[in-house]
Design goal:
Elements (H helix, E strand, L loop, with lengths): L2 H12 L4 H11 L7 H13 L3 H15 L3 H4 L5
Length: 79
């Protein structure tokens, strides 16, 4: 199966779901078996392609913040 077929299969799987069902799919995939990662990647790709630049910047900033926590939160608290 090539990448395009995988994308199409994932889109077809979630295409007719309600917002609540989409939330369940996403939340059920996060932290679960690595087999769910390609599906999350396809969903993120769809979000990214349909986002304004300001929304993309916020997503990148949120990811950056998670990957680079503030120095004071990483240091031990004074005793």
């Amino acid at each position: 199966m090539n990448n395009l077929d995988l994308r199409q299969a994932i889109v077809r799987r979630v295409q007719n779901l309600t917002g609540e069902e989409l939330t369940d799919v996403i939340e059920g995939s996060i932290g679960s078996d690595e087999k769910a990662l390609p599906g999350l990647g396809v969903l993120f790709e769809m979000i990214w392609k349909n986002s304004e630049e300001s929304d993309r910047n916020r997503m990148v900033q949120a990811l950056y913040d998670v990957l680079h926590p503030a120095a004071e939160s990483a240091s031990p608290s004074p005793s």
